[in-house]
Structures are given as C-alpha cells and as structure tokens.
Amino acid sequence: MKRLLTLLTFILLSTASFAQTIVSFKAMGHNDDEPIFGMSGATSFYFKITPQYEVTGSKLVIYFEPSQALIRDKSYINLFVGSKPVYSARLTKDSIQKITLTLTKADVSADNYLKITLKTLLTITDDPCRDLDNPAMWLKIKNYSYLSLVKSNKNFFNNINISNCFDSKTAIVYNSNPSLHDLKAVAWAYARLKKTQTKNIGVFEIGKLPDSVRNYIIVGAMPTLRDDKRSLVKVSPQTNQGLLYLHKSLTTVVDTVTRMVDVNGKFTPVKTVSQQVIPTEILFVTGGDDAGYEKSITTLGNMNVLNSTFGDYLLVNKAQNTFFKTTDENRSKLSLKQIGGASDFLSGIGSLKSAFNFKNSDFSFTPKEVEIRIVANYSALNPGDRGFFNIYLNGLLLSSEKLDASGKLNTSVTINRYQHHKYNTLEAEFRFYPNNGNCKNSFINFFAEIDVDKSYLESKNPFITSDLSFYQYPEAFNSGTTRIVVSKKFAKYAAGAMGEIIYELNNNINANNFPEFMYSDDIIANPSELKKNNIIALLAKDDPLLKRNEFPDAPIKFDRDFRLYNTDNNTIVYSLSDTTSNGLAQIFYGRSNNATLVLTATGQHLSEAFLAASKSITEQLSTLSSNVCISDVNNNKYLFNINKSSENLEYIDTKSALTRFWDSYNLYILLGILVLILLSFLYIRSRVQKSQDLFND
C-alpha cells in the first residue's frame, strides 16, 4: 500500500510539469470511498469537464479495493463511459487494483459531463443462491482515484463564454467600501457559483486579492471600478444599462516545480523553474450607473439567461426574474420527478434499490407530517417466489409489504417530524427471491420500475411552533417578502455570509426568493419594515438596531455581555468575548409573527466569523429546537435552546462591580481565606504548645 501511494505521489508531481491537472475523486466531492454491494452491483460518477481542459489525451485512473472473501478469478469488474462498455476484467490478487483509461472527446456528453459507471459480478461460494445476501460481497472505489486532465489553451478564446465560465470561477472581488448594490451582487454571484458545486469560494476586497487567483468575478458599477480593471472592459454600457463582460487573456507565469526523481532507488525532490502560459478570466458584473448595475445583478439570479449567453458580453436593458412554475404555488405536493428522481429500470434478484433526495425547504413550509406515495410496476411473481417492497428514510426501515402476482404497486407511508431531517434520503427497495429450484436460472426474470411522475411526497400539516428554530430555516422565509439588513460599518465583512444566505433561500426546486438589501440605519428610520417583512440581519454587536430593543423576543441580547451555562452541572459553556472570533446566530419570530434571523460577529476575523455562522445554521442539525448557534472560525459550533424561562443564560452587565469581582475571583478569595485560617490555627497551636512547655518547666 505504501508503495502504491508513493507511486501515486510520483505521478501527481511529475505529471504537473506536462501541463496536466490531477483532480481526485475526493476533490470532486466524493470524500469517502464509494462502496458497491451485492453480487451484481453498480455505482456511477458524474464529472463536469470545464472548457479549459482538453478531453482528448486526458486519463481516468480508478483504484479499487475488493472484499478479501471474494474468489478473485471468478469475480469481474466492468467500466462504462456514458453508455459504452470500455473495460472488463477478472479481479487480481492485489489488495488495491487499478484501471487506467485514456479519454477521447466522444466520452463527454454534449453538456460537458463525463459519466463513469462501474458494475460488478462477484462470487464467494460458487453457489449464486447462497451468495445473494452475503455481507462480504463488496468492492470499494477509492477516493484517491483521479482524472488527469490536459490543460489546453487551444481555442481558449472561442470555447469560453458567459454560459460556461461559472464552472471554473473560484472567487468574487468587490470594492473596498462596498455599497448595497455591491453586497447584493456578491451574494447572487456567490449563490450562482455554489450551484456549480464550487467548494471553496473566496470573497476578497479588491486590494486583498491574491496574485494566485486569476479566474474570478468582479462586481461594481463602471464609475466605481478601479482604473486598471475598468480598462479591461471593452464595451461601454450606457446610463440605465447593465453589462456582463468576460475578459480573457493569456499570461506567462514563471514558477518553481518540484519533481520526484529516482536516484539510486530513492525518490528525491528536484526543483526546476517552469514557465507556463496561464489563462486568465475575469467576469465583470457592472452597469453604466446604479440602475443599470441593478439590472445586471437581477440577471445573476436568472439561470435561464445566464445559461443561454454564449458570447463574451451581455448588455442588459431590461431584467426580471419570473420563473415558469412547475409546482403548485404552496408547494405542498412534490412528485419524485420534481425533486430530481429518474425512472430506473431494475432487474435481477436480491436487493434492487432506487434512491431519491429531498429537503424540507423544497416545501413552502416545514412539514410536520409527510406522506410518501410510491407507484410502481413490476414483473408478476410465480408460485413459490418471494418478493417484498421496502421503504427506507435516512437508513431506517419505514414499511415493508409483500409483492404478489398483480405486478402493480401503490403504497404509502406517513412520517412525522421526528423521522425526517432538513436533508433526507429516501430509498425504495424491491427484494426478490425466486423459487429455490429455479434460482440459478432466474437472475434476470424479475424487473421493476418506479413511476416518478405518479409517486410523490405530500406535506400534510405545517410544523408550527411558538418559537422558531434552525430546523425551520430557510423555509420559514419562503412566504412573504424578506429584507437583508446590515450594519454599515460591518458591510464589507458580511459579503460572504450574505452569499450563503442567498444560496440557501433559493436552494430548493422553486428558487424565487429575491430579498431587498438595506442598511440598519434605514430600518431604524422606517421601523414599519421590521413588521411588514421577514428580516435577516447581519449586525455589529453595538448596532443601534440592537440597542433600541427592536427585537424584544430575541433569545439573547447580543449587544450585552452574557454567559451560557450547562444546566446539568452549572458549568460555563460559553462567555461572550471580543478577543475570540465567533459568529453568533439566533432565529425567532418578530413583532408581527414574521421570521427573523440575526447574525453578529466578534473578534478580529469578522468576515470568517460571519461566514462560519451562516454555514453552521444550514447544516444537518441534530436537534429540532435549537434557536441560538455560536460558531468559531475553526468550524466548532455550539447549539442552544434559549427561551424566556431558561436558566442557562446570564447577563454579566446586570451585576454590580463588586458582584462581578466576586464571580471572577471567588475561588481565589476562598482559597486565601482557607490559607489564612490554617496559618492562624498553626500559629495559635504553636503558642499554646510553647505555654505548656513553660508551665511544665
């Protein structure tokens, strides 16, 4: 295994010098090894090939680990690219095995996706009837498998355009003193990049952009752009006109490349100077003035326009975000097709599964109960055959029923709020066992297919509580209008967090939540805004909006120093401190029963703290009732359920100076008193002993 990893390292480092990029499966989102279970199993991978790579000449390298129990010379692995078989072989005796395939342009679909499917036929006992449910029937695709992609500047200026440039962008750049328009542009650009599954999206002020970042989005109205950036835009938008402009250039870069060279049987690092021609892409989101700039920002939220812009620039005279609704307005009933499900034709014996993913935010409100209805057709069972249909949610078996000779399935199960999470995986399983006498001849006799149009999820009742929790975010903001409010002095630190919020508000099957952006000062001047709209506020700890007590039902007053205790042992869990970079978030109902989310940040790293808080509240939380979240820049987070009667919250600033002194130093004071008592006892004892000695004399 060590020899294999050494070889892999050598390949990675040496290949880089030949203008190739190594992208592992892990880097493309497959963090864990991908298992394939069963006698005849399969798994598929989808990879988006961005235009700066040349598919012809690129390589696919797959490492896999078979179960130790398999009969290797009677077990097989098959590789398909798209729908074409390209590789089949028996397993060897090696613990880790490898497949290498050179790719061609024909291997990539018209929408630039590379589909890889691996299918297995495994054997353990030579008796397929006994092998059916043997748990040792598995094979793992290792996450350090990789694509070796050839970087190509050929046709760079012709192949890259606005429609496909988002897939390779890694950062967003904004003015040092951003306006509300700039913040809105960053947020929508961030949300657009995150939909491409870009993992780490950098958000930088213009003066802090690293030299290594050459593929990014820059936002700002034309009059506000820095001179060196404005000169790159060769199209001039007029007043009241928006512009998306893609600047492309080739830059020669001199860099140091380290290669591993075999010297007398030992790999030794050797540094060489390499000169490379690097493509640079900058997408400008701008406008002739603020009105035109706003039109460009609106266009960022319209996927239909962006995906059909095949040129290097787009002048925007009119912009609107209207989407064709494929679901009912209140989104209480969703077909499996609407949540991305596809009809899979299943055949064979044993376990045959189809998986579907859905989120609570796909509904227009947090569901209290969800009916799962499955409609399917399957081949009729013969006398003596055994067949079952099982429904699993997040790995737990919900229902099971027998199949019969009808070949028709129409079944349902209703789940409560404790059974479904913010993000859910629904599995539908056909399990078929033929009559023992026909086992060896019945591997393809059974087939089934779920009708994804007629199968659906239906929310029966909305989950309504007296207090909001993060479990209900973001769908609590689905109805009504939303305002995103920010402290003016903290505005430039909140841009990345706003991007996370915009993404989550629209991370569902009917993305149409377009909030307005406001400064907290403007909200104070128009307090009715707090009652008419849902509010998401990113505020400084000392923002006047917090000090005016405009959020009387907030679980915690973030503008005051506080401590949170563990109610079980009365120990301090968290104490607010300006020296530590923390993000603090809380969700609650406003004065008009409107959804309200408030985030603030402390410490020196305010951008990172805001971003940490905005990410933490969108994760799969383990509790249904947390309404306060504290997270730090090291990805640690703490969840609390705070209400008016909570005993685990204490405001330090309500105590007198003497009380605060006692709270801070009481242990030291008590220890000092104890030491004084002990010393006094020893002193008195010594005096008494001395008196007794004199008396005896």
Automatic annotation (TrEMBL):
**Keyword Cell membrane on entry:** yes
Q: Which domain of life is it from?
A: Bacteria
Q: Per the annotation, which location comes first and is thus the protein's main one?
A: membrane
InterPro entries for the chain: Cell_synthase_bac
Which Pfam family, any one, appears in the UniProt record? BcsB
User: Membrane-spanning regions, if any?
Assistant: 665-684
UniProt membrane topology term? Single-pass membrane protein
Leader sequence segment: 1-19
The record's subcellular locations are: Cell membrane
Keywords, alphabetical: Cell membrane, Membrane, Signal, Transmembrane, Transmembrane helix
**PANTHER family to which the protein is assigned, alphabetical:** CYCLIC DI-GMP-BINDING PROTEIN (PTHR39083:SF1)
Protein name (Swiss-Prot/TrEMBL): Cellulose biosynthesis cyclic di-GMP-binding regulatory protein BcsB
Q: Which organism is it from?
A: Mucilaginibacter aquariorum
